[in-house]
Recover the amino acids of this structure.
């Protein structure tokens, strides 16, 4: 039995599809059962509630062998520590006496960065806490997700522009959520690995936002412009769309660390486990989203 958290989320739903396609028994943990497609409810066991709650996650682990763990990083949490570490505490309390032997978690690139890096620092602390339970744990430490650009679909569609608090010519790694989900599923379906490890997921190449704008223009067939915003603008914008003070500040710390070299301080040994190029991502995900 494989337990999947966030089956309604972008990454979790794709992990679920892979695991069901492989014919495995699945139990999902979901806050609102009625949000699930009818066909899906017949194919999985369902535990209703938040995976942060002990009363939910403890029975959800019963008899299971492995778990896909994704901390949602809710913007309304008071802090990144609350959103990642505290969110995962009950899970870590109930793991050791459970039947679970393997956990695959979603985390962030940045191990070894010594400055505070907001969401990333908290994600890595969560990894340490899960790894400290003695379980076999693989943290998928993701670079920035290409899919973040979809949050600006309206601005791209209406005004042909997207923003980031990053110099336009700074090359950084970007990975597609589809590749992250595929990597998680591979580890869940073949739990022949042991110990505590990180699997960094970089995507196939480093790209600047100006290069990404050029590819977006090409794929969408119209000019798309990148504009750098300030960290103060990012913080205000995050709060305007519902982030707490603590989470907005944490985003600033994270993007500052990325601009200062956190995501490029360690070079990938191999990148072929995350093959989706930004152009392929634009064709598969951005173009349909902009056409809506
Ligand atoms: N963005 C980046 O560049 C980046 C980089 C590295 C790592 N990450 C990590 O990637 C993850 C985001 O994954 P995603 O894109 O798949 O997320 P997503 O599409 O936003 O989905 C969030 C999921 O979490 C559930 N959820 C939200 N709040 C919850 C709560 N309080 N209790 C229980 N469930 C809750 C949602 O369920 P409902 O249907 O109930 O709302 C949904 O299934 C985060 O861990 C983030 O830190 C992101």
């Amino acid at each position: 039995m494989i337990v999947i958290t966030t089956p309604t989320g972008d990454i979790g739903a794709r992990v679920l599809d892979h695991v069901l396609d492989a014919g495995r028994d699945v139990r999902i943990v979901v806050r609102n059962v009625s949000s699930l497609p009818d066909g899906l409810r017949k194919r999985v066991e369902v535990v209703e509630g938040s995976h942060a709650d002990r009363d939910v996650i403890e029975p959800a682990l019963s008899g299971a062998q492995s778990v896909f763990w994704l901390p949602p990083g809710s913007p309304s949490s008071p802090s990144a520590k609350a959103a990642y570490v505290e969110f995962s505490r009950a899970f870590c309390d109930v793991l050791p006496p459970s039947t679970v032997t393997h956990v695959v978690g979603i985390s962030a690139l940045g191990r070894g960065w010594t400055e505070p890096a907001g969401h990333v620092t908290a994600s890595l602390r969560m990894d340490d806490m899960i790894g400290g339970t003695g379980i076999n744990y693989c943290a998928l430490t993701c670079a920035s997700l290409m899919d973040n650009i979809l949050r600006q679909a309206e601005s791209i569609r209406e005004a042909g522009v997207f923003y980031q608090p990053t110099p336009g010519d700074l090359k950084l790694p970007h990975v597609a959520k589809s590749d992250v989900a595929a990597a998680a599923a591979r580890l869940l379906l073949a739990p022949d690995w042991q110990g505590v490890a990180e699997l960094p997921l970089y995507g196939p190449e480093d790209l600047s936002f100006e290069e990404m704008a050029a590819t977006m223009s090409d794929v969408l067939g119209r000019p798309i412009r990148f504009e750098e915003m300030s960290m103060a603008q990012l913080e205000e914008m995050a709060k305007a769309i519902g982030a707490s003070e603590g989470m907005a500040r944490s985003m600033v710390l994270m993007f500052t660390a990325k601009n200062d070299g956190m995501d490029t301080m360690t070079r990938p040994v191999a990148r072929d486990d995350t093959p989706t190029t930004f152009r392929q991502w634009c064709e598969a995900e951005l173009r349909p989203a902009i056409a809506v």
Q: What stands out?
A: The radius of gyration is 19 Å. The longest strand covers residues 102-108. Residues 245-259 form the longest helix (15 residues). The pocket of NAP is lined by residues 6, 8-12, 31-32, 35, 50-52, 70-74, 106, 108, 119, 123, 142, 144-145, 148 (CB under 6 Å).
